[in-house]
Amino acid sequence: MKRKRKICFVITSQIHYGRSKLILLELKKRPDVDLQIVVAASALLDTYGSVLEDLERDGFTINNRIIMTLEGGNTVAMAKTTGVGIMEFTTAFDNLQPDVVVLRADRYEVIAAAIAAAYLNISVAHIEGGDVTGTIDESVRHAITKLSHIHFPTNVAARQRIIRMGEHPKYVFNVGSADVEFVARNRFRVSEKLINYLGVGDVIDIHKPFLVVMQHPVTSEVGQNRKHINETLHAIHELGIPTIWFWPNVDAGTDEISKGIRSFREEENPHHMRFLKYLPPEQFIGLLKRSTCLVGNSSSGIKECSYLGVPAVNIGTRQHGRLKARNVVDVGYVKAAIKRAIKKQVAHGPYRRSTLYYRKNTSETIARILTRVALYSQKKFID
Amino acid sequence: MKRKRKICFVITSQIHYGRSKLILLELKKRPDVDLQIVVAASALLDTYGSVLEDLERDGFTINNRIIMTLEGGNTVAMAKTTGVGIMEFTTAFDNLQPDVVVLRADRYEVIAAAIAAAYLNISVAHIEGGDVTGTIDESVRHAITKLSHIHFPTNVAARQRIIRMGEHPKYVFNVGSADVEFVARNRFRVSEKLINYLGVGDVIDIHKPFLVVMQHPVTSEVGQNRKHINETLHAIHELGIPTIWFWPNVDAGTDEISKGIRSFREEENPHHMRFLKYLPPEQFIGLLKRSTCLVGNSSSGIKECSYLGVPAVNIGTRQHGRLKARNVVDVGYVKAAIKRAIKKQVAHGPYRRSTLYYRKNTSETIARILTRVALYSQKKFID
Amino acid sequence: MKRKRKICFVITSQIHYGRSKLILLELKKRPDVDLQIVVAASALLDTYGSVLEDLERDGFTINNRIIMTLEGGNTVAMAKTTGVGIMEFTTAFDNLQPDVVVLRADRYEVIAAAIAAAYLNISVAHIEGGDVTGTIDESVRHAITKLSHIHFPTNVAARQRIIRMGEHPKYVFNVGSADVEFVARNRFRVSEKLINYLGVGDVIDIHKPFLVVMQHPVTSEVGQNRKHINETLHAIHELGIPTIWFWPNVDAGTDEISKGIRSFREEENPHHMRFLKYLPPEQFIGLLKRSTCLVGNSSSGIKECSYLGVPAVNIGTRQHGRLKARNVVDVGYVKAAIKRAIKKQVAHGPYRRSTLYYRKNTSETIARILTRVALYSQKKFID
Amino acid sequence: MKRKRKICFVITSQIHYGRSKLILLELKKRPDVDLQIVVAASALLDTYGSVLEDLERDGFTINNRIIMTLEGGNTVAMAKTTGVGIMEFTTAFDNLQPDVVVLRADRYEVIAAAIAAAYLNISVAHIEGGDVTGTIDESVRHAITKLSHIHFPTNVAARQRIIRMGEHPKYVFNVGSADVEFVARNRFRVSEKLINYLGVGDVIDIHKPFLVVMQHPVTSEVGQNRKHINETLHAIHELGIPTIWFWPNVDAGTDEISKGIRSFREEENPHHMRFLKYLPPEQFIGLLKRSTCLVGNSSSGIKECSYLGVPAVNIGTRQHGRLKARNVVDVGYVKAAIKRAIKKQVAHGPYRRSTLYYRKNTSETIARILTRVALYSQKKFID
C-alpha cells in the first residue's frame, strides 16, 4: 500500500480556523492523507476564543499545542514571539515528520513556522501569498513566499506577483479564497441570543440595521494606534447606529487599541455598542451577512464582504494596495471622513456579488493539490 | 548639530569579518556615523577563530556579544539557532536603537537579525542579495531581500532579480563585491610560519605549488555530506599535491564533514595535507593568491578567485546558479571528475583578472549610501 | 586604584523598584561601586506602571532592558517566561560582567536570573530568602537560595532556615526588610488628585475611611482564582466601604482575576470602588498609611502594614506560613468570613507598631555587605 | 477501571539511559503505569552515542525528542541551554500531561525539566538528590531538590540532607543507587571487538591490565580545564599502561578538554591509548569490571566501582564531598601525584565489595513508590 502523505496544518488564530475549516474537512476526508494539526499562539489564548473546542467538536485530533506569544502588544513582543515560535515549531515538525506544512497568510507566527519547516527540508505550502497590503505583513508575506514551495494565491494579480518573485509557475495555483468559498458554500445563521450572551455592552437587535467594526492595530504605526481608534470610536458614537465591535488581534499596538476602547467606554458609557472577542466562524459569517456595513481595516471587508455584497468602510493603511471590489470605500483616520463614508454606504445598501476572490471548490482543489503535487525541497529562483 | 546616524553592523562569522572590514573602516571614519557592532553566533565560537581579537586590534568597539548557536550540526540546530537569534537580536536592537541594521549574505543568523530589525521598524540594509545558489541559502537570501529596505547586490544580474522581486529600484545599488574590493585594494602577504603554526597535519611549503580546499556542508543534502567529502578527500589524496584544507562552516552537515575528515586522517595518515580552522582575512587572501587552485564549494572560488585569476574547481550544488567567471570549472561529487578538473586547472595556470564582481570603491560607496540615503520602514511591492 | 566592584541589580516588577529604591540609592552613593541596572519582565509592561520613568527621574542609568513575558496568564506562560529569561539574562550578564548579581524574592523572572548568574560563575546575592509561604513561590524561593551565595533574609526565622538548608552562616545576614525600612524612613503623602486621575471607577475621598484590596493569583490554584476573587469582590461590594483596588500581578491566574473583576464591574456597576494598576512607591505607602484596612493576599499586609499598624485581612493560601504580626487576620476564600474579618479589623482600628520585619539601616547594611564581603563562586553544602 | 498513572521519564544523556534502564523496565512492566519517555539534549547528539537506538531495541516508545544544546562548551552555552530546555520541556509536558515527571541527578538539562514541571503543577520525582560534590552541580542538585516532591537519594547521608533542607521525611526514600543495582544485577561482558571497532587510537587487549579514564570538565574551573587534562594525559602517557579513554561530557569546558586531547594526540602520537565516545551501558559495566583502575572524576569511580571493587583514582574537585568507599584515592591536578596514585592502586589490586551505595531492588522500589505514593503539588518547608 502506498504510504499516506503526512500533511501538517498549522492554526495560529481563531479566525484562521474559520477560514481554513473547509480545507481541513477536505483533507480529513481523503484516504491518502495523514492529517496533522498543530494549534499555536493566539489560537490558544483564551481571550481569543476557544479554537480547541471548535476543532474537537468538528472531529479533528490535535497533534500539538504550542503556547508562544509574548505579552506587551509591542514590536519587541512580536519579534520575540517569532523567535520562540521557530524553536517550538522545529521540535513539533521534527517529531511529526510531515511531508508538507500548510500555512496561511502573513503573521509572525506564520513566518516562524515557515522558517522551521524550510530548514528541516520540509515542503511548505502557503495560502494567500502574493497580495499587497500595508504594515510589516507586507514584508513578511513575501518573505514567506520565498521560503515556500507550493503557493495558493487567491487572485490572478497575486499569482503574477509570486511568479515575478522567481517562483516556478507550475507550483503557483490561483485557487480563489478559501475564506470566500466558506462564505459561498453555506447558509449561515447567527443567533441573536449568542451575540447578546457573549461580550460586554448593550443588547443589539440584529433584526434592525447595525454596523460591525473590526479595527486591528497597524504595527508600523505603533504609538498612533490609540489616536486612530479614537477617530473611529467617536465617529461610531456620533452616528448612533447600533454596532457590534470586535476586539483587535494580538499584534504590536493591540494594547493601544484596547486601552482606547476601555477608556472610551469608561468616559462615554455608550448605549448602542456591544464588544465581542470571538464568534464561531459560522456565526460570524451569519452576522456579517445581516450587517449594514463593515467598518475598520479587516480583510473581511475586502474578501468576505465582496462576495456577500456587504458595504465596507476601510480605514487607514492596513489594507493599502489590496485588490478591492466595488463594495469598499477607503478613508483615512479622520472622524468626519469615517462618518461620511459610513453614511454613504448605509445609503447605498447592499452591492452586487463580486467574484474577484471567488473560485469554485477552492478547498477541494487545495486538498487535492496538496495530496498529489510532486514535492520538492531545494528551491531555485526562476529567472 | 545634526544627530549622527546610528548604523549597526552585525558580524556572525569570522570570514564575514574579513569580508566586511573595509566597510567597517569606512563607517568608522565618517563623522556623521555612530557605528554599532554586534558580534554573534559562530564569530564567537572559539573553534572558528578569534574575531573579537581581530576587531579590537583594528580599533573597533563591540557593543554586544551574542552566543546563540545550537550544537548538533543538523537542520534542527540551524532552525532553533534562528529562533534563539531572533530573541537575542531583538533585545540587542531594542537597547541599541539603531537607525539601520547592516546584514550580509544568507545564513540563518542573518535572517534572524533581519526579522528582529524588520519587526522593530528598523531599516535593514542587505549586502549580497539577489544571487542564485543552491542549498537553503537560496530561499533564505531572497526572504531576507523581502525583509530589507536597502540593497547592495554585487552584480547586475542580482540587481535585476531584486527589482523583479518588487523592491524599489532606487534602493537597489549594484556596488560590486566588498570581498573582491578587499582583494583588489591590498597587497596581502601570507606567513608560512603562521600557516604551519596553526592547525594540524603536515608542514606545507607555500613556495611550491599547493591547493586550498574549502568544502562546506550542503544543508539540503544532509546525510550525504560525508559521502561527498570522501570523494574530495580521496581525490586530493591520490593527486598527492600539497594541500591546505579549511574545516567547514557550522551548518547542518558540518559534523558529517568533520567526521569524514577525522576518519580519513586516522585511516590514511596523509602526508601532504594541513588542516586549518581560521586565518586572519589578510593572511587568507595572501594564501589564496599564492595557491595553484581552490577546490571545494566556497564562494571564494567564484568571487575572490575571479579577480585574482586563481583557478577554481567548484564541486556539487552549493554554488549552483551563481554567476561565474572563466576561472571556475564545475564538477559533481565524483572522485575521478574532481581529479580530472584539478589536473586541468593546474595545467592551465592563472586566469586573466575578471571584473565580474568588482567595482571601484565598493566599501566607500556602501558607507556613503548608508549614511545619506533616506530611510523608510513601511515596504510596498513595486509592481 | 582599586577596581570598583560591579554590582548588577535586577528589577523585574514595579513594586520591586519601590521596595529596592533605598538599596539602589545607597549603592549609587558608594565610590567603590559600579552600579549596573537591568530592568526586565513586567517592570517593562506598560500596564504595570512606568518603572523606567521613575528610575530616570531618580537619576539611575539603565544598562539593559529585557522584554520577556509570555502572554496567557497561565502556568505554561510562567514556565516559558523563565526559559526566555535565562537566555536573556545570560547575554546581559555575559556582556556586563558583573561581580555580583542582586536579586529579590521568589518570582519566575528571579529564578531565571539566578540560574543565568550561577552558571556564569557570578556570585548571587538574594534578598528575602528563607521565608515560608504558599504557591509555587515556596519552592522557587528555596531553589534560589540554593543557587545564591550571599543571603539577606528579613527575619530571624528565615535566617535559621537558610542555614539549615546548608548555606554558610557567615554569608546569611538578617538585615530586616528593605520594604519596611522604606516605610519607616519616610513621611510619605498620597495625592488624592493622582489617585482619582489614575485608574477607572468611582472617585474615592481618601479623607474618609477606605479599604485597599490587593489580591494576586495563586498559581497552584489555577482554575479556582476566579471563584476566589468573586468571594472577595462580593464581600467588598456588600460592605459598601469605599475601596481602592489594585489589579493583580502577572502570574498564572492573572486573567482569571482580571476577568472576574471586569465581569463584576459590568454586572454590578459598583459605586464605591476605584481600580488602579500602579502607584509610584512613595504614593503607595502614603495610601497604605491612610487606609483603614488592607485586604487580599499581598505581602504588604504582612510586612509594610505590620510596621504601619494598619490592620490586614489575609485571604487564602498565598501567604501560608509567612511570619505575621498581630495586625493580620487570616481567612479562607469565603465571602461571609471575609466580611466578618474586615468588620472586625475596622472596629479594631490601628495596631501598635511591630518591628518583626524592621531593623535599622537595612539598605545601607546591604549595600555595605555587597561591597565588602569576600565573593565566592563554588558552593558547598555545610553539614 | 482505575486510570493509569502517567509517569514521564526524562533522559538527557547516554549514560543517563544506562543508569536508568532497570527503572524503565520496571515501570514498563506495571499494568497501572502509562510510561512516557522524553529524550533530550546530549542524549540526541550523535557524538554522544545512540540512545534512541538502544531505547527502541529495548522495546521502549519515545514520546518526544528535544534537541536543545547550545554549542560553545562554555558557561554561557550551559545557561542558555537551560533556557531553551525550559521552553521545550514545558511544551512537551503540557502536551503529555503527566502525573509525575522523573528526573535524575544535577545537570542543567535536569533543572530545566524540574522548573517546567514545577510551574505546571506536576509532581517531580528526583533520583540522586542530597549528595555533596563540587562544580555548579552542587548548587543545581539542591535547587532541584527544592523544586521536587518525591526524593530517591542513594545513601543515608543524602537522605538526611534532603530532610534538613525542609523536605517532608515521608517523601524521602533512601533506595540505594540504581546505577549500582544495574551493576549488581547482571553479569555483563564486554566485547573486545566492539571496543576496538569504536573510537580511534591503538588497539587495546582487554585480557591484559588496562586503565579506563573518564575526566569531565569542571564548570567552575573554566579556563583551567585544559591545563588539568594535560596533567592526566601526560601522567597516563608516562606510565605507558594500555588505556581506554572516554571523551568528556558536554559541559562548559568540554572544548578545552577535547582540544587538550586532540593536541596531545597530534604531538605525542601515543601508542597505548584508545579514545571512545560511547559504549552501550552493559558493555561499559563489562569494561569497568575488567579494568585495573578507573582514573578521572566520573561518579562511576565512586559508585559503580565501589561495588565492583575496582580501584579508582579521583582527580580534582568535581567529586569533592561525595561519600566514598575505600576503593577511591583522591589526588589534585598534578601529574606526579596522579602517577603515584595510579601505581598505588595498580599495586593494591581489587578491593572488597562495598555496599555504601547498594540496596536490593532499587529500581523495583522506585517504580512501586512512583506508582503508589500520594502525589501532591503545593510544597511547604518542614521546619
UniProtKB/TrEMBL annotation, chains A, B, C, D:
It comes from the Bacteria. SUPFAM superfamilies: UDP-Glycosyltransferase/glycogen phosphorylase. Pfam families: Epimerase_2 (PF02350). This is UDP-N-acetyl-D-glucosamine 2-epimerase, UDP-hydrolysing. Residues 26-370 form the UDP-N-acetylglucosamine 2-epimerase domain. GO terms for biological process: UDP-N-acetylglucosamine metabolic process. One of its GO terms (molecular function) is hydrolase activity, hydrolyzing O-glycosyl compounds.
